[in-house]
Structure formats: C-alpha cells, structure tokens
Amino acid sequence: MRRSKLKRLCLLALSILLVATTIACSSSTSVPSTIIDDMDREIHLTSMPKRIVSHVPSITETLYALDLGDKIVGVSDYCDYPEEAKTKPKVGGYYTPNIEVIVSLNPDLVLTDGYADDILNLESLGIQFAVIQPNTIDDILKDIELLGNITGERKKASELIEDMENRVNNVVDTVSDAPRPRVFYVFDATDTTKPWTAGPGSFADALIQMAGGENVAAQAQGPWIQLNIEELVNSDPEIIIVDSMMGTAVISPDEIKELPGWKDTTAVKNNNIFIVNGDLVNRSGPRIVQGLEQIARIIHPELFQD
Predict the structure, then answer these.
(1) Rounded CA gap, 245 and 237, in Å?
(2) CA 113/CA 115 separation, integer angstroms
C-alpha cells in the first residue's frame, strides 16, 4: 500500500516537472511560426536562427545585449559596438551591401532596416530576412521584443525592455517640473552659416524633450534640417549640444566661440557647449537610454548629481 502510494506521488511529481519544463520552454525558446516585421512582412520560422547577418549597427548592438553574439556570422562595415562586433566578417557598407559575401556566410536570417535595396532581394536567393526599422523610442522597445521572439530570447528581451523603461521613466519623472532651457543640437557644421540640426521625428529631438529641454528646431519640417545663421541667433539657444561622429566632434567648442552669430547666443556667452556621443543619440538600439541620460545631465546637471 505504501509503495503504491509512493509510486503515485513520484509519478505526480514527475508529471508536474514535465509540465513546468514544457511551459518554460514554450515561453522562452519555442519557435514562433510567423513573425510580422516592421515592413508588415510575414516571416515564417521553422527553427531558431543560428547564423545571423546584421546589416545595421543598432541591430548588432541589440543582438549582443540579448547575448546573441555567438549567433552573428557577419556585420556591416559600420557595426563597431561592442568591441567583439569589430572582429566579425564584414558584409559591406550601409547602402552597398556585398550580397556575394552575405550568401557565402550561409545565414539562416539577415536583419536589416530596409534601406539597402539589394538586401531586399535576398529572398529570391532563398535567404530569409527581417526588417527592423524603429522610428520612435517606443518602436525601439517593440523591436527588441520582436528580436527576442525571432531568436527565442524572450526573457532577456523582456528584462532589457524593463530596464530601459525604468531608466527612461526615471529621467522623465525627474525633469517633469524643471524649467525647459532652449537647446540647439549640432549634427553637421560643415557650413557654419547653415548648420544641420535635429527636427521633429529625429531621435535627438525626442531625447532633448524627454530630458527636459526645448529643441529650438522643434517646429521645423523634417527630422534633419538646416538653420541659417539668422534663425540660429533669433532662437538664442541656452545650451548647444554637438554631435560626435566616429569619436570626433563635428565642430569644437573653441571654434563655436569664434563664429559670427554663434558667439552672440546665450549658450556661448555662458560657456554651455557640450559634446555627446552621436552613437548614443542616433542609433536606435539599447544604448539610446545612455544618450537620454547624458543629455539630461547636460540640460539639468542640478538634478543628476550621481
């Protein structure tokens, strides 16, 4: 009698364990039959991708944040973060992917943002691809979830999203009652009489607003526009933020201080000229939260002492 009861208990425990294991596997590593990418394309998966080519720096960064670096077999020439990404085989430039190299890597999935037309033809070669094309901070979070679903790393994706949301909310809540100084974001100053800046629809504009600033180009038409020197002077920015490309500022603070018009702004008079890492601001990946925090510390240093 006791043996029979013990046997039933063992079988019950084993059944519970098997059910729990099945649920855990289905929630984190099961293969979704169909995924809808950012071009509303249906992607049919029969197994988890094991050989991924990432053609976009932000996608590469997201894959590494999901601990998928070992699945990446190729990256674009501009994928430079983290350091390990630099060691991966290169598959060409942003608009000029080398299709022959991509095919030779035998990928089971290519991830792109859809702007390189050649990559969109991969399907005719029997290579599956997905388009990841976020335009807002919320889109970035949704695409991290999408990549988690595609790769089976749902749990890591959920944890990453939660961390990013918490950090964003911390910044937004901290600056909610603070004054909003006027900010000019310098994206390109090749022509200092008509510098390029960030308008509505750009990540830089969104981050400035979320960080408690007022973008002087917030009413412009388009995400990237040129302001003439009169418009710059009339907007009288209190803070100037300079984008850095490939680690080099597009213009130095010392140069700005000597420029006609620029030197008459409140920002220059008060020496409020700062340089930010453009990759943190303009790449639509997990590090954009660092860009937000960096800009928030520039705009409201009194609120972010640590």
Answers:
(1) 22
(2) 6
Q: How far is CA 69 from CA 50, 85, 149, 203, in A?
A: 11, 8, 16, 26
Helix (H, G, I), strand (E, B) or coil at 69: helix
* Residue 82 preceded by cis peptide, ω within 30: yes
Within 13 Å and on the Cβ side, how many CA atoms surround 98?
13
- Among residues 173, 155, 137, the alpha carbon closest in space to that of 296 is found at 173
Which helix (H) or strand (E) segment holds residue 211: the answer is: none
What's the pLDDT score for residue 2?
45
Separation between Cα atoms, residue 306 and residue 301, nearest integer Å = 10
Q: Where are the domains of the chain?
A: 34-156, 178-303
**CA gap 290, 163 in Å, rounded:** 12
Question: How far is residue 119's CA from residue 168's CA, in Å, rounded to a whole number?
Answer: 33
What 3-state class would DSSP assign to 11?
helix
Decide: 74 and 119 in contact? Cβ < 8 Å. no
Class of domain 34-156: alpha beta
Do 178-303 and 34-156 fall under one CATH topology? yes
Helix, strand, coil percent content, the chain, rounded in steps of 5: 45, 15, 35
What is the distance between the alpha carbons of residues 182 and 202, in angstroms, rounded to a whole number? 17
- The architecture CATH gives domain 178-303: 3-Layer(aba) Sandwich (3.40)
SS (HEC) of 239-257 = EEEEEEECCEECCCHHHHH
pLDDT by 10-residue block (mean), the chain, 306 residues: 46 43 46 81 88 97 98 97 97 91 96 84 88 95 96 96 98 98 96 96 97 95 93 97 84 95 97 97 97 98 88
Give how far Cα 111 sits from Cα of 21, 103, 141, 208, Å.
Answer: 31, 13, 16, 29
